[in-house]
């Protein structure tokens, strides 16, 4: 039996579908509801209600399990979610590690993030050998993922067979209102601003394939960057706008402009109660130029290749347009 935490999220839903397609026996945690994105395979999955902070539900979920994919995490750059994010990402991972050790599972694949590598300097070229450095460029999300990795390494020291994956920004269809889906929606709304920042991006199906292949491999006590390519944000939005038939961004957002906007957004949020579109953390990270090396995973998995980002953007744009047409009809 394979257990997936975070199976109702973006990456987890794609992983569940791939495991079901491969004929694997799958069990998944859900907190309150099973999302529409996995309804087509929901009847082929054994569902356990609970979460990674509920030790009793975790005990039930781990019964008879031999492999675990730990995808559950909070991804947020909003100041008011910091405490919950820290608790779920760190304490939740500690609970999963403890249960995995007690249950004597065969292997655990933990989903971290390239953010856990740190972003101490501009124009950084980061690899798995990069060491964490305290910096104002590190978001609280990055801190939480770094500390959650420490729980995995603690488990490895106690005998746990585990592998860590560090995806860059994951692109895929669905979940348009959260995470990377918002990037496409910004292009759809013809958001006029772009930054000079550079970041890594990767197709969600590539992340899933790498995770499954690592689970099935003899590799242990290693971490792997999963990054298709490093693109400037402007190039990303231009490509999205082209596929969506929208006007690309044309105003360079300088750091001083972003500093004004996030402050205005903060005040607007206090007045309206709505989440700010831009925060201090997102304004800062959008200006950084960070490059990720994907050579290690390509060497570890013979024949594995990342899908070109232009192809990924083309596909998700077509899927988005199709959903827009369906909802309008």
UniProtKB/TrEMBL annotation:
Protein name per its UniProtKB record: NAD-dependent epimerase/dehydratase family protein
Tree of life domain: Bacteria
PANTHER family in alphabetical order: NAD(P)-BINDING DOMAIN-CONTAINING PROTEIN-RELATED, PROTEIN YEEZ
Q: Which Gene3D superfamilies match?
A: NAD(P)-binding Rossmann-like Domain (3.40.50.720)
Domain NAD-dependent epimerase/dehydratase: from-to ranges: 2-221
Q: Which SUPFAM superfamilies match?
A: NAD(P)-binding Rossmann-fold domains
């Amino acid at each position: 039996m394979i257990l997936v935490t975070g199976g109702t999220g973006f990456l987890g839903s794609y992983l569940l579908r791939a495991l079901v397609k491969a004929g694997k026996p799958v069990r998944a945690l859900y907190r309150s509801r099973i999302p529409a994105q996995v309804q087509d395979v929901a009847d082929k999955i054994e569902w356990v209600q609970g979460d990674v902070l509920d030790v009793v539900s975790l005990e039930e979920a781990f019964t008879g399990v031999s492999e675990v994919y730990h995808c559950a995490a909070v991804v947020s750059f909003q100041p008011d979610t910091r405490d919950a994010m820290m608790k779920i990402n760190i304490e939740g991972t500690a609970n999963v590690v403890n249960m995995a050790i007690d249950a004597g599972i065969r292997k655990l694949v933990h989903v971290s993030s390239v953010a856990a590598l740190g972003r101490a300097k501009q124009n950084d070229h980061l690899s798995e050998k990069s060491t964490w450095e305290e910096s104002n460029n590190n978001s609280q999300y990055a801190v939480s993922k770094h500390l959650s990795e420490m729980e995995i390494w603690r488990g490895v020291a106690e005998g746990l067979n585990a592998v860590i994956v560090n995806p860059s920004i994951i692109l895929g269809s669905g979940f348009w209102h959260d995470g990377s889906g918002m990037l496409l929606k910004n292009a759809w709304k013809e958001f006029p601003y772009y930054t000079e920042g550079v970041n890594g991006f990767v197709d969600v199906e590539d992340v899933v394939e790498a995770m499954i292949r690592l689970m099935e491999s003899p590799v242990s006590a290693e971490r792997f960057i999963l990054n298709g390519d490093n693109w400037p944000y402007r190039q990303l939005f231009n490509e999205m706008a082209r596929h969506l038939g929208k006007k690309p961004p044309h105003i360079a957002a300088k750091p001083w402009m972003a500093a004004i906007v996030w402050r205005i957004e903060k005040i607007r949020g206090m007045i309206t109660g709505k989440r700010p579109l831009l925060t201090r953390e997102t304004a800062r990270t959008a200006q950084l130029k960070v490059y990720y090396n994907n050579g290690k995973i390509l060497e570890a998995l013979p024949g594995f290749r990342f899908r070109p980002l232009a192809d990924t953007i083309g596909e998700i744009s077509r899927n988005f347009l199709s959903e827009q047409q369906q909802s309008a009809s």
